[in-house]
Amino acid sequence: MADALAEVPADERVAVVDPRFVGHLHSLRLALTDPRFPAAAVPGAVTAQPEARAALKRAATAVPAGPGTRYRVDVLADALAEGMAAEDAAPQSVELGSLVATVPLTPAERAAAEEAVAAVDDEAVRLRTAVKARDGFFTTFFISPYSRYLARWCARRGLTPNQVTTASLLTALIAAGCAATGSRGGFIAAGLLLIFSFVLDCTDGQLARYSLQYSTMGAWLDATFDRAKEYAYYAGLALGAARGGDDVWALALGAMVLQTCRHVVDFSFNEANHDATGNTSPTAALSDRLDSVGWTVWVRRMIVLPIGERWAMIAVLTACTTPRIVFYALLVGCALAACYTTAGRVLRSLTRRARRTDRAAAALADLADSGPLAELFARGGRGGAYTAPVMAFLGTACLLTWVIFQEEPMTWTAVVIAVIYALFSGQAVARPLKGPLDWLVPPLFRAGEYVAILVVAARSGVDQALPAAFGLVAAVAYHHYDTVYRIRVGAGAPPRWLVRAAGGHEGRTLVVVLLAALLHSTGFTIALTALAVVLALLVLAESIRFWVSSGAPAVHDEGEPA
Fold first, then answer.
1. Neighbours of 119 (CB within 10 A)
2. Which of 528, 523, 522 is nearest to 474 (CA)?
3. H or E element in which residue 102 lies
């Protein structure tokens, strides 16, 4: 066996399947073709990708042969899996559910296995498992019942998830273009196209699970295009409203800011707690009890306004009302959802006795996006369990209070306030972020930077400053989402040179305030636009380089529940 394995080129996947295997074809497909795992096994079959080939070869060499080893030879694939596990290279154990995979050793066992295979519809299971186990109400009952069949249709015609994802993006961009016309017909077409874009958005993930086509490029496309589609649609609505004489750019930017900060709250809380020990609390226990009552599960999923419900609301309101009403509804709905989720997570954090890991602290530090100024001011910082969120809150409150409530906020005093914000930001990250509420630090920084840009542009009185600020926040938000998705797949944060070159949140805030103090005409708009373009090119170039490189892991990120 070891000699046979050695004949296969080292850069190829190998599989060992018992010739007497009885089971569903999809059982073998799950075990032998999923690219996410270095090695995988089901009863009677084992596979190894190039990085696990050495462990498989050693296991094959260790399998005994000769008199008295008949049983081990009869289940060679299982013996190889056991041998790999003994070397700390255990193959992924595939969850088969109702599918069958076995190696019968007697005629009676074979007959029973064949009967079990005949009792389960392989294709029905494949279609059912193509849909996410946990999804939103709108997606579960209004999209997935037919999008799974669209996924199968795509698979049978050789389409890939990446092609469907790209089609979803193009559809959403066309929808944004229709909204930008400002006509009632354009708004109706935009709403319909946005729903169809969401159908395709669900289909790409279902196609990836149906055909097991996970890829590095797919991870990047799926992780980022949802945000690009939604925020491009916001811009389209703002352009359409402007054609009708209604300036809603501040609302559009506010919706993007609020939605991004909501996501950062989710990301930070999850990263802080997913590998914590002693991670229990009365609040979490109450949540588990509520999950046992069916209707409360759907109500709680709908309250948070996930992407399915959110896009459905946007589409219907676009077709039936005006962009201003769309943004009012979006801001109110997202604000209520943000209060609900954030309050619950604060309560959980205060009532649990979790011990957070160094990995979690490093992830929160990366999500904080601290630049050179914060690093400078972080030296020598000390404090207690709540120092980090308090410092982040004080810095953000100081900055936003000034830019929002001062009669003449765009002065050199505002520059000093921005420096004070950087000082507080440095103190917030001066020690490892392991406190119970330290996960609030990144969303507080996002709120400080994004809202400051919004208010400074709105109060500058400069023509087209708000659209330029929209572009700037979009570029920065992309950088922050990219950081999240890299951490999620275990690839680490973007390189420090990129974070420093982008200035960090405190550096960018200082630059925007400084530009507002220096430039009081169209030069401010030009400066914001130039800053947005430079940042976009910088972060996009590094992001594309990373996600298309061979070093990026083969995963398909599901993002938020649809």
1. 9
2. 528
3. strand 101-102
**CA atoms of 352 and 355, how far apart (whole Å):** 9
Q: Which amino acid is at 267?
A: F
Number of Cβ within 10 Å of residue 96's Cβ equals 17
> By C-alpha distance, which of 366, 341, 351, 501 is closest to 429?
366
CA-nearest of 185, 226, 198 to 318 is: 185
Q: Which whole number is the average pLDDT over 552-558?
A: 53
- List Cβ<8 Å contacts ≥24 apart for 313-318: 314/191, 314/194, 314/233, 315/190, 315/191, 315/192, 315/194, 315/195, 316/191, 317/191, 318/179, 318/187, 318/188, 318/190, 318/191, 318/194, 318/237
Position 101: which residue type? A
Residue 426 CA to residue 444 CA, distance in Å, equals 13
Q: In this predicted structure, what is the pLDDT of residue 314?
A: 98
Please state, in angstroms and rounded to a whole number, the distance separating the CA atoms of residues 472 and 502.
12
- State phi, psi for 371 to the nearest 5 degrees: -100, -165
DSSP secondary structure code for residue 494 in this structure: P
Cβ partners under 8 Å of residue 461, min gap 6: none
Residues 220 and 544: their CA atoms lie apart, in Å, by 8
Beta strand 39-42 pairing with 45-48: antiparallel
As given in the structure block, the two tokens for residue 422 are 């950087």
Mean pLDDT on 33-61: 92
Paired tokens of 255: 């919706």
Which backbone phi and psi does 159 adopt, to 5 degrees?
-75, 150
Q: What is the pTM of this model?
A: 0.91
- Rounded-to-integer distance, Cα 420 and Cα 398, Å: 8
Query: 16: helix, coil or strand?
Result: strand
Closest-CA residue to 217 (of 39, 92, 474, 35): 35
Model confidence over 397-451: pLDDT tens digits? 999 999 999 888 778 999 999 999 999 999 999 999 999 999 999 999 999 999 9
